[in-house]
Design brief:
This protein has 168 residues and is α+β, with helices and mostly antiparallel strands. Helix content is 42%, strand content 30%. Strands 1, 2, 3, 4, 5 and 6 form a six-stranded antiparallel beta sheet that branches.
């Protein structure tokens, strides 16, 4: 099921631009933003690789051009926010692997309190990422997926924010 990771990552990018809020059952909101790094691959892997860095690459002409040319989104730097807490990480689609996770600075008087706070933040991070993936899978495994997929495709074909700002 190699397609599932890139499909999830592309869907998450679309959600980040169209409806970035995910809600836990208790009402807690989690926001997603794609940040500073997108990596695309074509059919021949490295020979057809596009890496976009700095600024907001998701808004660039190059990011949409990569999608339109049939490349798959295989890695992205993501900012996930819950309340005042922000976590940044890179998500690799092929294995759904997380790297470079940066958590908020843990608060506490003692080393043990800070360690416990850090562990709790890691648990929160996993819960929030699981929420995003579960939301995707719930849609992906139902008839509602066809309408969702049509929306993602239309978004991918539409001009990027950078393209919309170009003079005619």
């Amino acid at each position: 099921m190699e397609y599932l990771g890139p499909e999830f990552l592309t869907w998450l990018w679309w959600r980040a631009e169209t409806d970035p809020c995910f809600r836990h059952a208790d009402g807690t909101e989690v926001y997603i933003h794609f940040d500073e790094h997108l990596e695309f691959r074509g059919e021949r892997a490295a020979a057809r690789r596009t890496v976009l860095r700095a600024g907001i690459p998701g808004a660039s002409m190059e990011s949409r051009a990569a999608l339109r040319s049939g490349k798959s989104l295989v890695a992205a730097r993501i900012l996930m926010a819950r309340g005042e807490d922000e976590m940044r990480f890179t998500l690799r689609a092929e294995e759904l692997g997380v790297s470079g996770l940066r958590l908020p600075t843990p608060q506490g008087e003692t080393h043990e309190e800070r360690l416990l706070a850090c562990l709790e933040m890691q648990e929160t991070f996993v819960e929030d990422l699981d929420l995003c993936f579960a939301t995707f899978l719930t849609l992906r495994c139902t008839p509602a997926w066809e309408a969702e997929l049509a929306s993602v495709r239309a978004w991918g074909e539409a001009p990027s924010p950078d393209e919309r700002m170009q003079p005619a």
